[in-house]
Specification:
This protein is α+β, with helices and mostly antiparallel strands and about 1250 residues long. The protein is built from 26 helices and 72 strands. Strand 55 and strand 56 (about 1080-1085) form a beta hairpin. Pfam families: NPHP3_N, WD40. This is WD40 repeat-like protein. Keywords: Repeat, WD repeat. InterPro entries: ASTRA_WD_repeat, NACHT_NTPase, NPHP3-like_N, P-loop_NTPase, WD40/YVTN_repeat-like_dom_sf, WD40_PAC1, WD40_repeat_CS, WD40_repeat_dom_sf.
């Protein structure tokens, strides 16, 4: 019944109120919805008014509790504990009290082992708060003031929840004379008794903090008398009121009344008993109501048909991994026998007669479960239950076949009738209601648990055929349900179980194909799982097109669907190595670890947080663990129950991996940052290494320091235990490793060989080898006993930050600040496969999963990434392109060619129309190419390098002209020709400019000096008389190009270094770009600023250039974008050009102004259509040389501007997510308004002409 509107004057929540004559009345439905959304109360834990004491029984105890409730004074304990053994009737009394005091009942919460994962102490407090708010408007208003606090919504700290959600709002209750009762039933079923577990914290809260409540608030608790309960009762004798079930008077008499009522009743199903027989039953009960109740319903075991039906139903019920309703049990049983839902089932005539054993027997849709955990134990124990013993294996057989058949019967395309693929699941109106409407409980149960039943049955003839039918025809729809219900992580477990099951069948072609099919599903889920959870339609729209060609999944799945995106070029034949990118941290991720079962990940970041992730779906689990200065290291305990973190505040913290709460106090002792931590193999110790040059060993139970190990001359960077726990290895800034005896703390060995800091150490699984990574860019494998070097592994081009052995010890993975991961064979010491690329900044941490199939990495790019560690045979295709980042690009004067310079020390020239290389690479520089420029006639090219030289190249014969131009003492950052082609000017890291004679290579005059920092960019005026230079010293200077003298004073206008400068074609203006992310336009004659700074980029502006007609400006940025600006209005023209996946270093206009070329650290060169309305070419040669019709023309492409957002969605100009692009395709995908893409990693061209998307997405199901 809806609550009547209440009158309030609190304007803080005016949006919840309506004006009525002329008072405000609150909209109770809105507020209740808000409280439900914020507090997420547990369903089904409320009062059951049918579960009450029989009239005339339990009179004395009910009277005692009633008197306690009606006594309102400060001296009366706020909490009443009713304690007793299972089956003594505690819960029935609690429900009776709840029903009798319904007017005053604020909340009722029943803990249950069956629902232990959701009925936790923290969820109980949230549910109690919600119930109180719904019942009492005063408390509701108090809750509204705190439910928007993000800490309260995310925390599992019981003290914080108690204070904010219970005590605070309770104090808003305005009637101090009206009792308010809160009932907590079965407290003993709320979790483990272990110390520091949530159960202990809830007990402590009730004992220590109940007096914080107003005196009219009463908490009634029922519980078994277990050891922790006894301890607290004895410790706080005056804080609570206690009663014990075995001390209640008249118990046997009450049981006798109950038995007489049931067994002498003429309506009894079992016939009538005489009074003496009832007396015997009552005596046998020995104070346990449940015993008498059970005997009543299971009195006659001689009915063979009834007992057969009983066995079938009870085996199914007890075999279920979660409680099911009577209707669900029936449907699953009928499905197991290939019968229709309209047929009769033994469930129909067994369940209603088991009310003594089960709850929920009255209605078909109610959850059916044993009245107590002891009932299950009793029925599975033949020695105790005799005739009534249940064969649970039969139940698993019923449910294995039943769940598979239910899925085959009810799974189909678009389960929840989603209408628009542009909407993410969170944007779909009433999605939860759709899920409840279209996905029945038994179907969801089947989708999530069918494998658990299958693995418990023996192979039978029906198994293989039904598995083939399910996987080939229905597994896509099964994944659809898992995605909708956020259970996609289940897929990996299910397919592993099913795959092992299928392996045991006799070999045959059909079996082999099914086995391969099943093995590929986890790969599919690992790549697409998070996307499927985010947007169900894209299971089909985005998942199916990118399945590797030639795979079993591709052959089976795509034959049933049409109107999908198709490949013109670039469809890969192997599963992507990069499976998922997890984002959420706001600073560098410096440490990662897998849980022992491989289902979770933990990451630590300098943003001060520890995050736990679902390793299958990529979804975060719970809220970040906060309160830390900066996390340097994280580790899972061997049992997966705890996480430890070491941080910049010199401490180690141990966390409960389930609740996210800190276990005990931080471990203090180090005097500098804790850089590395590790659990011992038995989980009883933690070792920590610190910048204070010491290692400390801690006891994880007592949290006391066990020992301190000293000997390194500089800070410790890495620590690890040996597999047997007897030794510890440490790596230090002093370039050495040491091994230590864990027990004695003595040094066992010292390892010398690295030429710089040791950043990472790891023992091999057999303990015979140690691997170390170093700032000398190498990995060394050592003999763990002798300390001898077994091999030095060199391939990384920057600091090696992390090393880890595979579980077999056959492979080693290393991560580096060169942004890559590399794999090594530990026997041959050679590289395995290609480097894994994807991170856009240094890789800080790498680790294998326990099965060796995956690797996780954390990076300075703030992301966590999951990789496939199983290398696949693939056709090696070589693509032309730079092997490292592109630093500079330029158009030739005729617009037919483009040139690019790279960090790979080479220059390439490309055909602008086809993307084909024009000749081979131009090589001669000994270090990075930092800048290039064509001569005005296009016959020459000048390059500047970090090798401190310039070189001039003949573009026709592609050879060096003359000797290198030497004169700078540091790297050359910028070069350009004069308009007549006779001079070259260069800017350098040595803070100077040099003007050169382009004909003979001689320097003209002395270097031009004046800047106080590196010169990042130089530009000739169109008449060749002036030079503009931009510098990291935040200034721009103008120079006389003939005399070399400075013109006027330096120009300042940027808040940070100036990165680029360029004159307008008429010479009246110049534009500058800066590290402050802005652009400025200047008057070239007066040096005055024209207008305000141009904002738009979210990163350093790296390059700026005017269009040939002077009407536009192009800019490149570290935010991975190119922007085009109106040079007159200084406004952005259209959308940014997105496509590059790393910093864009250089941009240039084509001579006709219709295209822009850009070069990026992602190793690619891209040409863009300036108009931004789509591609301006109809065909494109493939990189192999043969022509291919390009589908992305102005007339046929469905939209003219696209970009890939940070989550990987290819979006159209209206921001609609068209299709999700897997990580390995993002840097090679060509889309509007790109005209051309040149990439060493390949090229991907998609055809979207027949692509069904948006509101027509359902058309992909062409079979129906």
């Amino acid at each position: 019944m809806m609550q009547q509107p209440g009158i309030y004057g609190d304007f803080a929540y005016a949006h919840h109120f309506t004006m009525v004559n002329p008072k405000f009345i609150y909209n109770s439905e809105d507020i209740q919805m808000k409280l439900q959304e914020k507090l997420k109360p547990v369903q089904g834990a409320w009062l059951d008014t049918n579960k009450v004491c029989m009239e005339g029984t339990r009179v004395s105890i009910i009277k005692e509790i009633s008197n306690w409730i009606n006594t309102i004074d400060s001296g009366t304990p706020r909490v009443y504990f009713l304690c007793g053994e299972a089956g003594t009737g505690k819960s029935t009394i609690s429900h009776t009290i709840g029903k009798e005091f319904l007017e005053y009942l604020g909340a009722f919460f029943c803990f249950s082992r069956t629902f232990a994962t959701e009925r936790t102490p923290s969820n109980a407090l949230r549910t109690i708060a919600y119930d109180l708010g719904i019942k009492f408007p005063d408390i509701e208003q108090g809750l509204l003031k705190v439910v928007d606090n993000p800490h309260i919504l995310s925390t599992t700290n019981l003290h914080d929840l108690w204070k904010a959600l219970i005590v605070g709002p309770a104090k808003q209750f305005k009637n101090p004379f009206k009792p308010v009762i809160i009932i907590i039933d079965a407290l003993d079923e709320c979790g483990s008794q272990e110390q520091n577990e949530p159960r202990e914290k809830l007990l402590s809260l009730l004992m220590n903090n109940s007096q914080d409540l107003p005196k009219n608030f009463h908490i009634f608790v029922t519980t078994r008398l277990e050891s922790d309960v006894i301890t607290y009762i004895e410790r706080f004798p005056t804080s609570i009121q206690v009663q014990y079930m075995n001390r209640i008077s008249n118990t046997n008499e009450d049981i006798y009344k109950y038995v007489c009522n049931q067994m002498m009743n003429t309506g009894s199903r079992r016939g009538m008993l005489k009074e003496g027989q009832c007396k015997i039953l009552a005596d046998k009960a020995e104070g346990f109501f449940q015993w008498a109740h059970t005997v009543y319903d299971l009195f006659d075991p001689n009915d063979e048909d009834a007992m057969t039906a009983y066995g079938v139903v009870m085996s199914e019920l007890l075999a279920a991994f979660e409680p099911l309703s009577q209707a669900s049990l029936k449907r699953l049983q009928l499905a197991s026998n290939d019968m229709d839902n309209d047929d009769e089932s033994s469930v129909d005539y067994v369940i209603p007669f088991l009310g003594s054993l089960l709850t929920g027997v009255d209605k078909s849709e109610l959850i059916v479960k044993p009245v107590h955990a002891s009932v299950r134990d009793f029925l599975l124990d033949e020695g105790r239950s005799k005739h009534f013993v249940v064969n649970i294996k039969e139940g698993h057989r019923t449910l294995a076949k039943g769940t598979l058949n239910v899925m085959i019967q009810h799974l189909h395309f678009n389960m929840c009738k989603l209408e628009d693929s542009y909407l993410l699941n969170v944007q779909v109106k009433d999605l939860q209601n759709k899920i409840l409407r279209y996905i029945s409980h038994d179907l969801l149960y089947a989708c999530c648990t069918w494998d658990l039943h299958l693995q418990r049955v023996e192979q039978q003839d029906w198994c293989l055929s039904i598995l083939e039918k399910f996987f080939y025809k229905y597994s896509l729809y099964w994944m659809e349900v898992l995605g909708l219900t956020k259970n996609i992580h289940v897929a990996s477990r299910v397919t592993t179980t099913a795959g092992n099951f299928v392996k045991n069948f006799q070999n045959g072609r059909e079996k082999k194909e099914l086995e391969q099919f099943i093995q590929e599903i986890p790969l599919f889920v690992q790549v697409f799982g998070k996307m499927i959870t985010d947007s169900t339609p894209h299971l089909y729209l985005s998942g199916l097109p990118f399945i590797p060609k030639g795979s079993t999944l591709h052959a089976r799945y795509t034959e049933k669907f049409g109107k999908l995106v198709t490949f013109c070029k670039g469809h890969q034949s192997t599963w992507p190595y990069e499976q998922a990118t997890l984002q959420g941290h706001t600073s560098q991720v410096v440490s990662v670890a897998f849980s022992p079962n491989g289902q979770r990940l933990v990451s630590g970041s300098w943003d001060g947080s520890v995050r736990i992730w679902n390793a299958e779906s990529g979804e975060p689990i719970g809220s970040p663990l906060l309160g830390i200065k900066g996390v340097n290291s994280v580790a899972f305990s061997p049992d997966g129950k705890k996480v430890a973190s070491g941080s910049a505040d010199n401490s180690v913290i141990i966390w409960d991996a389930e609740t996210g709460e800190a276990v005990g106090q931080p471990l203090q002792g180090h005097t500098h940052q804790v850089s590395s931590i590790a659990f011992s193999p038995d989980g009883q110790k933690i070792v920590s290494g610190s910048w204070d040059k010491s290692l400390r060993v801690w006891n994880t139970e007592t949290q006391a320091a066990v020992s301190m190990l000293q000997g390194h001359a500089k800070g410790i960077k890495a620590v690890a235990f040996s597999p047997d726990g007897d030794k510890i290895v440490s790596g230090s800034d002093d370039c050495s490793l040491r091994t230590w005896n864990t027990a004695t703390g003595e040094v066992v060995n010292e390892f010398q060989g690295h030429r710089n800091q040791v950043t990472s150490v790891a023992f091999s699984p057999d303990g015979n080898m140690i691997a170390s990574g170093s700032a000398d860019n190498s990995v060394i494998i050592w003999n763990a006993e002798t300390g001898e070097t077994m091999g030095r592994l060199q391939a990384h081009t920057n600091i090696v930050t992390s090393v880890a052995f595979s579980p077999t010890g056959e492979k080693l993975v290393s991560g580096s600040f060169d942004n890559t991961l590399r794999f090594w064979n530990t026997t041959s010491r050679k590289l395995v496969g290609k480097p894994l690329e994807g991170h856009t900044d240094g890789v800080a941490s790498v680790v294998f999963s326990m099965d060796g199939k995956r690797v996780v990495s954390g990076s300075w790019d703030k992301s966590v990434r999951i990789w496939n560690a199983e290398f696949q045979e693939a056709e090696e295709i070589t693509y032309p392109g730079h092997s490292m980042g592109v630093t500079s690009v330029a158009f030739s004067s005729n617009g037919k060619e483009i040139a690019s310079g790279s960090l790979d020390n080479s220059i390439r020239i490309w055909n602008k129309e086809t993307g084909d290389p024009v000749g081979g690479p131009l090589q001669g520089h000994k270090n990075y190419i930092l800048s290039i420029a064509f001569s005005p006639d296009g016959t020459r090219l000048v390059s500047g390098s970090s090798d401190q030289s310039l070189r001039i190249w003949n573009t026709e014969i592609r050879e060096i002209v003359g000797a290198p131009l030497q004169g700078h003492t540091k790297g050359v950052l910028s070069v350009t020709f004069s308009p007549d082609g006779n001079r070259i000017v260069s800017g350098s890291l040595d803070n100077s400019l040099i003007i050169w004679d382009a004909r003979n290579g001689d320097a003209i005059g002395d270097p031009l000096k004046g800047h106080t920092s590196a010169i990042s960019s130089v530009s000739f005026s169109p008449d060749g008389e002036r030079i503009a230079s931009a510098s990291w010293d935040k200034s721009i200077r103008l120079w006389d190009a003939t005399s070399g003298g400075a013109i006027g004073e330096p120009l300042y206008g940027h808040g940070n270094g100036v990165s680029s400068v360029a004159f307008s074609p008429d010479g009246t203006k110049f534009v500058s770009g800066s590290f402050d992310s802005g652009l400025r336009i200047w008057d070239a004659e007066t040096g005055d600023k024209i207008g305000d700074i141009l904002h738009g980029h979210r990163g350093i502006v790296t390059s700026v250039v005017f269009s040939p007609d002077g009407t536009q400006i192009a800019s490149a940025s570290a935010d991975n974008s190119v922007r085009v600006w109106n040079a007159h209005t200084r406004e952005n023209m259209g959308f940014p050009l997105w496509g590059h996946t790393r910093r864009v270093n250089s941009v240039a206009f084509s001579p006709d102004g219709k295209a822009i070329v850009s070069g990026s650290l992602d190793k690619s060169v891209r040409i863009w259509d300036v108009d931004g309305r789509g591609l301006v070419v109809d065909s494109l040669k493939t990189l192999g040389g043969s022509p291919v019709t390009h589908p992305h023309t102005k007339s046929s492409f469905p939209f003219d501007h696209c970009y890939i957002n940070s989550e990987g969605w290819l979006c159209s100009s209206d921001l609609a997510p068209m299709i999700w692009i897997p990580p390995e395709y993002r840097s090679i995908l060509m889309f509007p308004p790109m005209q051309l893409l040149i990439n060493h990693d390949g090229l991907c061209v998609l055809d979207l002409n027949n692509f069904a998307h948006g509101k027509s997405w359902m058309k992909v199901d062409t079979a129906n």
